[in-house]
Design brief:
The complex is a heterodimer of chains A (152) and B (127). Chain A has a single domain, classed as Fumarate reductase/succinate dehydrogenase, transmembrane subunit (3 helical TM bundles of succinate and fumarate reductases, Up-down Bundle), CATH 1.20.1300. Helix content of chain A is 55%, strand content 9%. Chain A is built from three helices and two strands, in the order ββααα. In chain B, 80% of the residues lie in helices and 0% in strands. In chain B, α2 crosses α4. With 127 residues, chain B is mostly helical. Classes of the chains: A mainly alpha (152), B mainly alpha (127). Chains A and B meet through α1, α2 and α3 of A and α1, α2, α3 and α4 of B.
């Protein structure tokens, strides 16, 4: 069902219901791996945002001499360490995939326009190596972060 | 046009975060025994190392920059996800307003804390 929004900065704009809602993130169609990279990008983004909002409060408490991440603080211990590594992993994924998305958004990694001659090629054929490259970068970061966490 | 501009800023903020948050993550999760900006012991977020960084103007400035850029990027991203659900225009306006107030409030809190921690670290070093 279209929702009439009327004049929006000089142009009339019709919007259509997002029928699948959040379930649309999970595919519901013949999507490539980029679709799942997109879903994971949003999930990691929301996770980082939740941690970041909490982090602002917790880090600000240091001004009052309260350090919740050391000694007997509630954010100190093995569970917190695993949580911190997960935040690092989420950041590493979000950053690596985000760089790919910016390059694609700017048209730098989608290839040149070409005649639609069989066998057809899509821009996904050009983008895929960039995704693989970024996931290799992610793997390197995850291993380095894991090594650093274990040897701390 | 306004949305396109906001989206461009969202992307630009993401690129800035690769460097700003990348530095923070490097110090906290990758530098390890290299003691980069963490000269006291192996733990980069020990009290001594936190005060060491708080005392440097470079970190106070980058903390405030990181705070502003990350709040914009994160809250605008959340708004994008919520507005994709085709809510009623009044609800969308309310979401935008709440997220904006939340962002401004947290930016104020974080900036105050960063500046206060910097002053306290300098006072400690001076005393």
């Amino acid at each position: 069902m279209a929702i009439e929004l009327g004049e929006a900065e000089g142009a009339e704009m019709n919007r259509y219901d997002n029928r699948l809602g959040l379930w649309g993130w999970l595919g519901r169609g013949r999507w490539g791996i980029e679709r799942y990279a997109y879903a994971l990008h949003r999930i990691t983004g929301l996770g980082i945002l939740f941690y970041f909002l909490l982090h602002i409060f917790v880090a600000s408490l240091r001004v009052k001499g309260i350090y919740l991440w050391v000694g007997k603080g509630i954010f100190h211990g093995p569970i917190a360490s695993v949580g911190e590594y997960l935040v690092f992993a989420a950041f590493a994924y979000h950053a690596a995939n985000g760089i790919r998305l910016v390059l694609v958004e700017l048209g730098l990694a989608v290839g040149k326009p070409m005649e639609p001659v069989y066998p057809y090629r899509t821009s996904l054929n050009v983008q895929r190596p960039l995704l693989i490259l970024m996931m290799i970068l992610l793997l390197v970061l995850l291993i380095a972060g894991g090594h650093s966490a274990l040897t701390r | 046009m306004k949305e396109a501009r906001s989206w461009t800023w969202h992307m630009a903020a993401g690129v800035a975060l690769v460097f700003l948050l990348g530095l923070h993550m490097f110090i906290m999760h990758l530098a390890g025994s290299a003691h980069v900006f963490a000269p006291y012991g192996a733990d980069p977020d020990s009290i001594a190392n936190v005060i060491f960084r708080d005392g440097r103007l470079f970190f106070t400035v980058t903390y405030v920059l990181l705070l502003g850029v990350a709040l914009y990027h994160g809250l605008y991203g959340l708004r994008t996800i919520l507005l994709e659900l085709t809510l009623k225009p009044a609800v969308e306006k309310a979401i935008t307003m709440v997220l904006m107030l939340l962002g401004l409030g947290l930016f104020g809190l974080g900036t105050w804390a960063a500046i206060a921690a910097h002053s306290m670290a300098l006072a400690r070093a001076g005393g």
